[in-house]
Automatic annotation (TrEMBL):
Signal sequence bounds: 1-16
The organism's taxonomic lineage, starting at the top: Eukaryota, Metazoa, Chordata, Craniata, Vertebrata
Residue ranges annotated for the MoaB/Mog domain, each copy included: 420-563
Source species: Lates calcarifer (Barramundi)
Function: Catalyzes two steps in the biosynthesis of the molybdenum cofactor. In the first step, molybdopterin is adenylated. Subsequently, molybdate is inserted into adenylated molybdopterin and AMP is released.
Pathway: Cofactor biosynthesis; molybdopterin biosynthesis
Protein name per the record: Gephyrin a
Example GO BP: gamma-aminobutyric acid receptor clustering
Cofactor(s) this protein requires: Mg(2+)
The encoding gene: GPHN
Amino acid sequence: MLSTLRAAVLCGVLFSSDLLSTVKKGSQECFQFILPALPHAIDLLREATVRVKSTHAALEQLPSPSPLMANTHTNTHTNTHTMERGTQCEEEDDEEDDRRRGQHAHNHHHPQHGSSHITAAAIAAKTSHAVVMAKGGPYLPGNTPDPPTHYTCSCTHDQQIPDSIISRGVQVLPRDSASLSSTPSESPRATQATSRLSTASCPTPKVQSRCGSNENILRASHSAVDISKVARRHRMSPFPLTSMDKAFITVLEMTPILGIEVINYRDGLGRVLAQDIYAKDNLPPFPASVKDGYAVRAADGPGDRFIMGESQAGQQPTHTVMPGQVMRVTTGAPIPCGADAVVQVEDTELLRESEDGTEELEVRIMVQARPGQDIRPIGHDIRRGECVLAKGTHMGPSEIGLLATVGVTEVSVHKFPVVAVMSTGNELLNPEDDLHPGKIRDSNRSTLLATIQEHGYPTINLGIVGDNPDDLLSALHEGISRADVIITSGGVSMGEKDYLKQVLDIDLHAQIHFGRVFMKPGLPTTFATVDIDGARKLIFALPGNPVSAVVTCNLFVIPALRKMQGILDPRPTIIKARVRHTHIHTPNSIPYSFNSNIL
């Protein structure tokens, strides 16, 4: 079986670009050998257990390899030997290395040994591309908007295969064995190594959800990102383009609503209620006058009336209005017993007053009043037990006043998200620093902090972080431990010092939901999440261009913060408008620009 698989692998070499034009006949012969072996080889590479006894028997019936293949076998085996030894994981202890070296030396002298291991590095050593097959076929970035669970990893001859991609659990069974083959998922070392797939050599287009607990990721003091192989970095981003609509939906879907806390109503401005608010009392709690004037009996009609006193706001009248009498009232004052209407002062005429002019004694009512005129009955505005503010209400000044009206001084609200902001780049200086050659002042951090604070959210200033994986990891650790959302600017494009995505993937085991958005500006915008002790942290890695940073912050970060604080519809308001001048932009991309504070 091993020799058959090796022959199949060697056949693949014939299809590389340097041999395709000269080996047509050999290619036809290769098809005869490789096609029957491919389904079995793929099954072995997939994370599944496969019984292979019957397949071995079928493969043994195939004809022997051609001389061309036989001549190539020795060199291929030697190269495989070198590749395997050069790409072993750092976690492999000395004993395991000695065992593997001894076994490989033995296999070198006995190439037909039935229990030899076939590793991913050995397969990739002589092929132009190593493709991890997805269900239904390989995934090619750009061909489909939704990459499959298993991703395509394209590694050329010039790129080292990452240590973590080597599968030490897949082996070809002896001919007489009917047991199940071991898969990578059954090998603890393979599982650990695979989870550390280096994005420097073979990054993941769409990082999957991480399994297990992330409670220990904050303890690492040094980054595992390899920065030495600059020449082998990818020239094209491995992250597929995501439409802006899909990116926005993804952000909202992955954004949690924060927990609940109890605050004083005076601190409720901008907060979202986590409970319904009910009135404890009627408003008004008594029949109240709507206007300044006289409380009268409607049945008396127009005429001259004796004034028996006054009712002022804040006082409860003690006298009863009798026929032929009225009582002077002010706006909001209780209506005395016996009166059922109010006549405004403009519809009266004073007939008699006290000698010192301090009291009104008699007045003429000039209009016919109707019962209930200019009186607010009990509970006219709010009735006892009525829901005055619903759960999910975004409180403004009026809502704060209403809470005071109904006497609710302690309210349950959703917590405000705490946002940490940092800028990345060796070229950045603080605004107060003098410029030096090759340096610029950092403006993104100030702009982003002000943008977040404008919406009322508490912020943490993480400062400037250099283009170094260890420094990035340390700053991200601080942000994750202190904040709910981390915003970075810079370090997310294709530069040789753009390590941020690798740190998120390799060190933090973050789930990168998208790494590029089809918009201008803001193409390399990245969104990731990390779950720590049951709490989800959001990471927005924004471009370093100042316009890109502020545009993407308003489009993605602010809506996410609004959802986190419990706002039912966090989407921004979109207004269609017609521009006065011709604007040319890239077809199918969405341009954004600032003009008079309008996006």
